[in-house]
Structure formats: C-alpha cells, structure tokens
Amino acid sequence: MEKQKKIALINDLTGFGRCSTAVMAPIVSAMKIQAVAVPTAILSAHTQFPTYYFDDYTDRMKDYIQTYKELKLDFDAISTGFLGSEQQVDIVLDFIRHLRRTATLSSSIRSWETMGSCIGRTRKRCAKR
Fold this sequence. Notes:
- By secondary structure, the chain is of the alpha/beta class.
- It has a single domain, classed as Ribokinase (UDP-N-acetylmuramoyl-L-alanine:D-glutamate ligase), CATH 3.40.1190.
- Helices cover 37% and strands 23% of the residues.
- The protein is built from four helices and four strands, in the order βαββαβαα.
- Strands 3-2-1-4 form a four-stranded mixed sheet.
- A hairpin with an 8-residue loop joins strand 2 and strand 3.
- The chain starts with 5 loop residues before the first strand and ends with a helix.
C-alpha cells in the first residue's frame, strides 16, 4: 500500500477573497494529497482590499511546527504563500532545514534556498500596516 502524500501549506487563512489556504487545500485534496496547514496569519479579506483584519501568527508558528516535528511527519513538498515578516521567513527556513536534516522532506526543493530574495517585498508590504 502506497503511503499518503503530504504537503505543508504554509500560508494565511483568508475569509474573503480567492486566495490562501482556503483555496489551496481543496485543490491539493482533489489531487489525493493531504494538505497540512501551517497558518501564518488570519485575514478577514486579502491584502489587496482597502481594509482588512490581520491577525499575525508569527508568535504561534514555532509551536505549531513543533507539533509536526514531534509527530515526525514527513512531507513530499512544501508550499508557502503569505509570509508577513522576515521572522516568518526565518521560521520557514528553519523548518525546511529540520526536514532535510531528519530526511523527512521527500523531494529536493532547491528553490527554497533563494527564498531570502523575497524579503524586500515582504518588508515593504508589512511597513504599510
């Protein structure tokens, strides 16, 4: 029996607007891949709307991910979306390093090593809040 494939969806949960984990999870599930969420924030509407509620999950992300480490979950892939700060980028990179070190990231994703190039855009976006 083949084991269930899993993908870590590291993204926000947005109430209104067609984006975030709310859109990704059903698509991934339709592909018969288990979507495992790691929330970065909860937004009432996505950030392109003129007003929205933003609940930052940076302080909760490490504890959330720690549970997955303790469960020794392995992932076939990782997808990131909304990362609201440089600290969130660091948390995600640490998670990826952990998965590689413990050999629980099934596929080699070299593009994650260039993730730091996105920090400038993230910083500008966060400064607007």
